[in-house]
Amino acid sequence: MSKDLISQLIDTLRCLPGVGPKSAQRMAYHLLERNREGGNKLAHALVEAMEHVGHCRICNTLTEHDECEICSNQGRDGSLLCIVETPADVLAIEATGYRGRYYVLMGHLSPLDGIGPEELGLQKLADHLDRGGIDELILATNSTVEGEATAHYVGEMAHKREIRASRIAHGVPIGGELEYIDGGTLAHALAGRQSV
Amino acid sequence: MSKDLISQLIDTLRCLPGVGPKSAQRMAYHLLERNREGGNKLAHALVEAMEHVGHCRICNTLTEHDECEICSNQGRDGSLLCIVETPADVLAIEATGYRGRYYVLMGHLSPLDGIGPEELGLQKLADHLDRGGIDELILATNSTVEGEATAHYVGEMAHKREIRASRIAHGVPIGGELEYIDGGTLAHALAGRQSV
């Protein structure tokens, strides 16, 4: 063994996003000094999740089951399909009370990084659309260049199959003050104005 | 199993200091989507550290060995003993190039929380001092009420044994501008002025 266990723990904690050397050190000492039980529980949860969590057969999100909870819920509206980039986006949209179904891309198109439709696995989405029963695709990818490109591409896939596609609205956030909103967002908000 | 593995992972990640629900979620998805190997390594490092890390027989710091690296290093100056609150403080002082030895209290006196000299295990420090060979005790506890009280108490222990005791200097940090230093620190800096 080349390094001692405490240094190893500090090093491996740095694989967590947003954790630098100082936070990793603080975390390691906190667990060792005050919460060994928590540390053991965390180790167990990590092993279990890394081992057993895979992708939902239908919507592609992360789940330990063959079908995720949402896909296996018969009460959800199967005619609405919301396209998102990540499982975290599903949680965010779930919090709004949306009752349709999802498809999780697990990324976005990014030709510069060599991620085209094939690498992103859009064939699985195409098969999903071909099975029918979907009236509307809600394109809820991020409002980044890659997210917009992905939304455009998936929108085209829907049009080819004569499925309606819509893009979530972009504009001034609720509670936001115009003074502090960036120009791009404000331009979007003006272009997307709706009659009242 | 009541909760799914992903939720369990998110919950257990929150035992890390400074990790709230959003960061925990981000960490869990990051590991699952992009770094399963890192997750497994982290689990392994956690198990090993929680299982095997104990206290140094001599200086009380956290280590997986019977004696820590510093205590078993014969090149260190055994006549200087630096008293600190936590193992992280040892790392901070090591970075200054200090070549003496340490004693780690693993906390501070805090009568309000029921932590007196006995609970803090100061008998082990007393035995250490009684073994002799120590010329000076450097009191490097934190500059908090509890840290000051602990420094005072340990200082008295040293005086009883006719060992010199010193407190690290408190004052204006290097590179600090007087304008932005709080009054308490500035008062300390004035009271602790040294002739040049």
UniProtKB/TrEMBL annotation, chains A, B:
The keyword Metal-binding applies. Gene3D superfamilies: 3.40.1360.10, 6.10.250.240, RecR Domain 1. The keyword Zinc applies. CDD domains: TOPRIM_recR. May play a role in DNA repair. It seems to be involved in an RecBC-independent recombinational process of DNA repair. It may act with RecF and RecO. Keywords: DNA damage, DNA recombination, DNA repair, Metal-binding, Zinc, Zinc-finger. The gene is recR. One of its GO terms (molecular function) is DNA binding. A zinc finger (C4-type) spans 56-71. This is Recombination protein RecR. Transmembrane segments: none annotated. Belongs to the RecR family. InterPro entries: DNA_Rcmb_RecR, Rcmb_RecR, Rcmb_RecR_Znf, TOPRIM_dom, TOPRIM_RecR. NCBIfam families: recR (TIGR00615). Residues 79-173 form the Toprim domain. One of its GO terms (biological process) is DNA repair.
